[in-house]
Amino acid sequence: MQNFEQFEKHESGIRSYCRSFPVVFKQARGAELITREGKAYIDFLAGAGTLNYGHNNPVLKKALIEYLEADGLTHGLDMYTEAKERFLETFHRVILEPRGMGNFVVQFSGPTGSNSVEAALKLARKVTGRQNVISFTNGFHGCTIGALAVTGNGHHRGASGVPLTDVSRMPYANYFGDKVNTISMMDKLLSDPSSGIDKPAAVIVEVVQGEGGLNAASAEWMRKLEKLCRKHEMLLIVDDIQAGCGRTGTFFSFEEMGIKPDIVTLSKSLSGYGLPFAVVLIRRDLDQWEPGEHNGTFRGNNHAFVTAAAAFEHFWKTDEFAKSVQAKGKIIKERMQRIVSKVGPDSLFVKGRGMMLGISCPDGDTAAAVCREAFKHGLVIETSGNHSQVVKCLCPLVITEEQIDKAMTILDAAFATVFSEQVKTQAS
Ligand code: PMP
Fold first, then answer.
1. How far apart are CA 257 and CA 217, in angstroms?
2. Whole-prediction pTM value?
3. In the listed set 283, 315, 347, which residue is the last one of a domain according to the structure?
């Protein structure tokens, strides 16, 4: 019998993931979570995309332990430290420069994704002198007020307590199906002085919508969006907090699309070790902040600097890791297609890109039932989407093929059980 007394007595009712996975975890390694009773689960949640390199990645752990043992700074406000110097140099050399982004500077915005979204929006408004921002249906950008205003999710928006303003919501790629060109629609609205849309400072977009149900924009749509931004003098902010750091098979989700965002937000897997860390990447000419104008105590998580730099050096100096992500993405997708064809393509379909994949179910109850069934058999997996209808596979990118096989076998059986129960219920 599990004992959750301390949590139930002392933790706020706001807790949520623990309700889907009612066990107490004690250890975690690679793609595996281990409870205090010693039961192992394969982790297809991975800190909601924060553990791309797995739990306690040995390379990152070694770098961190060495740093701790040498009494390296933990906290440094935004002072110069050796750890930050190494992070900046490595990030520039290994990630930015080879991707034609050598002209970007880094703002340390505070540790969470929402912190970096807030900073990005604030900067775009400051630089352009405009208030309005365009964001998209089913976009998710965080739960602080500014980030929440650009977020679509009604459940989260409902808790804001104040009006969420200065945003114009537009339909994301394929929101109305593939025959409706949502870019032309936006162009018309933005070109009409009486459309009621105030001239925006920026557009904020996820290239693959993580929380919104793994809706993936095509390269063509992203290129047209970039063109639209140039035409209407709006800054293009790509929120790569969930889709970045290798999740789609390249470091940035947009890098093979031939677009150049003006501002990029990164967090989640940036530290690589699950340490809180977020940045805003700003094209140098847009870096119009006054010193300290946007502040924050926790902008210098030096442990995150150490593990992030170690991750860049270890995983990103060649394209070997990216290729392995692309290959594993294909394997997972194939296994998903098999599930879909077994259960019936009328009911299910595969969504997403790279290793950011999911299976869309007819409704949220079915998806939740699949996740519950999978959990019973050793797989931690969650849903996303506007009706929580997408069973979302967000496993660590370092997962082994053997673990993928085991997890997909569990998932396959979970779908079979849930759908056979549905058939039984309908028949009776
Ligand atoms: N942007 C995106 C795309 C996200 O997926 C998230 C978190 N799910 C955020 C922003 C907010 O990040 P955080 O929860 O760290 O504030």
1. 10
2. 0.98
3. 315
